[in-house]
Amino acid sequence: AQSVTQPDIHITVSEGASLELRCNYSYGATPYLFWYVQSPGQGLQLLLKYFSGDTLVQGIKGFEAEFKRSQSSFNLRKPSVHWSDAAEYFCAVGSDSNYQLIWGAGTKLIIKP
Amino acid sequence: DTAVSQTPKYLVTQMGNDKSIKCEQNLGHDTMYWYKQDSKKFLKIMFSYNNKELIINETVPNRFSPKSPDKAHLNLHINSLELGDSAVYFCASSPSGGPTGELFFGEGSRLTVL
Questions:
Q1: What is the pLDDT of residue A72?
Q2: Pick from A67, A52, A8: which is nearest to B100 by CA?
Q3: How many beta carbons lie within 10 A of that of residue B1, not counting itself?
Q4: Residues of chain A with confidence (pLDDT) below 70
Q5: Residues of chain A contacting residue B3, judged by C-beta atoms under 8 Å apart
Q6: Quick count: other Cβ atoms within 10 Å of Cβ B2?
Q7: Taking a contact as any Cβ pair under 8 Å apart, which residues of chain A between 89 and 108 contact chain B?
Q8: For A31-50, how does the pLDDT look when each residue is reduced to its tens digit (9 = 90+)?
């Protein structure tokens, strides 16, 4: 069965520091991979997605993610975080054999001033 | 002009009552969804409609009934509300169903059952 694991429930980072949020998935074929962000009191917004091709994908708000097939990972990165990046981040996986997305449990990003 | 709008944003009600949440999207998308987000932020899909036709119906109590009068609207009616129904309910839409379409979410409707 497909699954998505976000190992960190929450992460605290100082403003201006770099960020990496982890996402591991379990799926046999090449998955469709997504990162969404949920700001407090808001709905989710797509940050970036990977379907095929270049394994390093760029998204909005200065985020990027790298697909590593050998590690079944799709980690989200940002070189320098801003206080406005404080939010909940969700990794999700889709496939041609499953009509719906499988969601991770989310990682809450806390920014220290 | 909000792309996916839900009403009401907040809903506080007593156990046993019936309530509805409405959702409208002006993006011209074919597919709409209802998600439930619990207090631990876990997202669970409830229903999905593609062009007014139900395509995903997860294991959800029969007290929950979606209705799509047209492809721009997807409403959620809940009968006999229970404490465990307290959650944030998100409506979303996508240009096409399936695993590759980007989801556009509404701001959520926070339901509190007392």
A1: 93
A2: A52
A3: 4
A4: 28, 98-99
A5: none
A6: 10
A7: 90, 94-96, 98-101, 103, 105-106, 108
A8: 899 999 999 989 999 999 99
Q: pLDDT for B99-113, tens place per residue?
A: 777 899 999 999 999
Residue A77's alpha-carbon distances to A36, A89, B73, in angstroms, are 13, 11, 36
Six-digit token string for B31: 């597919």
B88 touching chain A per CB within 8 A: no
- For the segment B1-33, what is each residue's pLDDT rounded down to a tens digit? 679 999 999 999 999 999 999 999 999 999 999
pLDDT(B98) > 80:
no
pLDDT at A28: 66
Helix (H, G, I), strand (E, B) or coil at B103: coil
SS3 of B28-69: CCCEEEEEEECCCCCEEEEEEEECCEEEEECCCCCCEEEEEE
Exposed/middle/buried for residue B76 (C-beta within 10 Å: 0-12, 13-18, 19+): buried
Closest-approach residue (CA) in chain B for A37 = B105
Looking at residue A80, the DSSP 8-state letter turns out to be S
Q: A108–B41: do the CB atoms touch at under 8 Å?
A: yes
Inform me whether the C-beta atom of residue B102 falls under 8 Å from chain A C-beta atoms.
Answer: yes
